[in-house]
Amino acid sequence: MSGVLQASFRRPAQRGRSQTRLDSAVPSRNGAKRQPVKSPVASGETGGKLDGVGPSPKSPRGRNEPGDDLRRERPMLLWAPWAVLALAAVVGAILTAGSAIAIACVAVLAAATIVLGWRFGESRRTALEEEIDGRSHELRRALSELEIAQTETVRRLSMAVEFRDEDTGAHIERIGRLSTLLAEQIGMDADFCERMSHAAPLHDVGKVAIPDAILLKPGPLTAEERAIVETHAEEGHRLLRGSSSSILELATTIALSHQEKWDGTGYPRGLTGEAIPIEGRIVAIADVFDALTSDRVYRKAFPVQEAVQMMREQRGRHFDPVLLDAFMEVLDNSGPDAREKERADPDALVESALETYGTALERGDAETAEGAIATAIEDGIPATTLHGEVLAPALLRIRELRAAGEIDSERERLAKVITRRVLATLYRYMIGNAEPTRERVLLAGMQGDEHALELQMMHDQIAAAGFATVFQTDLSSESLNATATAQAPDVIVLGATDSEDPQAIALAVEELHAAHPQIPIVLGGVAVGGTMPVSQNGMRVLERIDEAVEAVEEQLATRPHAASL
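^ thats the sequence. predicted structure below, dont judge the formating
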């Protein structure tokens, strides 16, 4: 699979295992009970690490919400003065030897004062709580936006590596996932596992400093070339260090330590045993396993069982023996990619992708949405199927939720942004380096069309079939005719939605056909969300997005001058 695809599609890692697995002793190499592996996040220790990884500065777990103390103290401050004033009134009446009636009146007045003061204080307290809640919400939103920005930065750095080497794209995705599964298997806390899923893919980011002639060399490396490649650990550390991001802090340690070996023969520092940070030991296992089971420019992939045997032979030498045993449990539980059982049923894969992608769009979760599409592509689902059976239905669902008031316009906009980014990456995957060799096709979206993304899917399929394409949207009837004249296409694919004024759209189609009778027209129709009129004058109405190429070829075959060619 193209590395370009994997750069943008980050598959979500499984999360949420607790620290409880660490409470039980882990058997050591000599059969005795070994102390549980400590989480660098949970313990706060660096354990001889090159760069200590402490608690995440952005994690709100275990902390009081802003204003909690104020909520507890304000009520007392508000009604206490009224109580003191009322008590003073009663005491004063008694000391002045007033009559029983006077004392009773003063007591009633004091009680009324207390009640009124309490009511006033309660009202003020409620107003203060609402203000505190509002500001707390703003703070949580700001923190969430910061976390999203951090994740996006990490993803962009991963892309920088991926674009150097086609294999690296898929490789870094799998490393993030395998590393997270292993961290969960040994019971690392949820925060550590969360950061590991983002940080592990950056383990080889230092390879951006390695010349292409060496990095992409198809044969064995010389000693000098090997020495240059080994500098990528230091280069990655230099690139990532100094960040305030807890994710990049963890990635810094991984970049520097993932090539270290348990027996001290690794590089760049020659660390041994538990002096190697646990995150580096985790990624080392995931990295080697994926490298052995993947094709390389200089060799074919090893079968999984053979790769496992090769790794077992390095237990206690290259790999931490306890972590290696835990990794074998991961493979036993999930298989080498945890999707073998699903691959036998393509329909189930498409349904799963739609469920995951649609839910992610509703939540505005770009990472999970992109991961769902990456997984589907790796499982062999064609891009055209993803267009018609995953992306388009998910967008339709978002529009329905917006119309029902279940999501706001901002969430709908974010869903479109995510889908547009997914389509851009899919397009690079579909097109590759191919140059158009076939006829010219104009894909035009009319003014006010809400389904430009679906029309873009049709464009991408037509371009991938080798046609030269022009894609323009938001065209008025006049500009549509002008564009057709200027571009002189062999076929026009018109997308429109008739929700506002179907007669106006039908008239625009008639005018376009009258002005350019020699140009065959394909109407988007149901494919882009509208219900365009029944096909007339040889025009084809699409009912499925994945019929776009077929429709264009059909129209080209039946155009008026085809018989004379």
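DSSP finds 21 helices and seven strands in the chain.
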